[in-house]
Each structure stands twice: as structure tokens, then as C-alpha cells.
Amino acid sequence: MGGKAKPQTPHSTPFPINWPAQLPYLTAPSLSPHLTPAHLRALRTRLTDSSDPLPEIPRDLKPGPCPAVRITRITDPNHPAYGQAGLFATRDLAPGELVLPYLGEVHIGTAPFGSPTSASDDYDYATSDYDLWLDRDADLAVDAARMGNEARFINDYRGVPGRDGRKANAEFRVAWDPRRGGAEGGERCMAVFVLHAGKRAVGRARVVGIAKGEEVLVSYGRGFWQGRREECSTGGS
Hints:
It contains 2 helices and 11 strands, in the order E-H-E-E-E-E-E-E-E-E-E-E-H. By secondary structure, the chain is mainly β. The strands form 4 sheets. A 4-stranded mixed β-sheet has the order 1-5-7-6, with no helix packed on it. Pfam families: SET (PF00856).
């Protein structure tokens, strides 16, 4: 293992309940050593879009295990992730509420696909099912395959029993983290938010987006990941 360039991995103790012992647990994003100054500047630039402003991570959000969720083994044989793990709410979560940041290795989005950025780094992001675009234009992505936090255990809603026709109850969104970036005063990150209540929501659904004990579910799938890899291999964005 010696000689390979690896991202720094901030750790926290104690780990979340049911965290895999062999997997580094992050309390902050891990920055790839291959990120250039231009990538870092882009990461620490808050884009302004009045029609879709970036949600902000609270300054007082403490790093470490998230008390709002728990990693739980899936024991229902009808669940697509049977025998693996999912992420479940430990309390009611309101529509639009931040669940937790999605932590992993922030890396160059396209260069590593099929062509590592250096001879000393043979990890291929194309093999990851945990890689999300952070900014296509800036060529930045975040991968939680080799390290991460509880958010990496969020499953897709498709095929999950007991949903009664309901789809995802959460979503990945790029957010602004004012706790990061040093003197620059902030950094973009990926985070998980409860979906907003729809216009037709009534009663409890208007105030509770994810109920206590309910699995946190987003919309993704093989098509999403494969499409991302195909975009990168063809140079698309």
C-alpha cells in the first residue's frame, strides 16, 4: 500500500451504531490529493442562483454520528437490499429538513474514469455505486465507496415493500457548508434532505416527511450510475 496517494480521512469516535469496522468513518469531506487549485477554488465558490439558491448546512451542526438516523440491517427478504443495510429515521423528520451531509472523497469527476490521475493511484471510480456529481461544470464529484458517513447506506425506493405506491422520501442536493473552506468561509458539499410536501399533502403528511422508524429512501439506480459513467467516458457533462 505504500507510495499510493490517498485522500486524508478525518475520523470520529465513537462511530455510528452498526458502522462497518473496516470502513473509514468521515466527519468532514475528504479531499483527493489530485484536486488542483482551480478545483478547490470552484469548490469554495458559492454560486448564486435566485431561482434555486443553495440550501445551507447549519453552522452549529456538530460533526460525527447523526442522531436523527440509524444504520440498520435489512431483514425483510422482500427488500431489494435484504441482508445489507439501510438508513432509518430515529425521529419524525419534517418536509424539507436536512437529514445529514453526504460525506466521501471529493475528487476530479471525469479524469479517473478508466484512466487514473497518476500511476500511483489505481482506484477506478467507475466501479463505485456511491459516486455523485457535485458540480459537472467544475468537474467535481464525491465518492463514498471507500470512506463516508451514514448517508452512504441510503437505498433506492424502488421495490421496497410497504411503500403503498409512495416513491422517494428524500433527495440528494448540493448545499453550502459555512463550516468548511478555512479563511474562504465555506465550501460546497452534497447533502440529504427530506422531500418537500406536495401540494396535495394533507394532515400528518404536511408536517412529517419521514416518520420515526421509516427508511430514508432516495431515487437512483443502475441507470443513474451507468449514465454518469457513460457521460464521463465520452467527455459529456
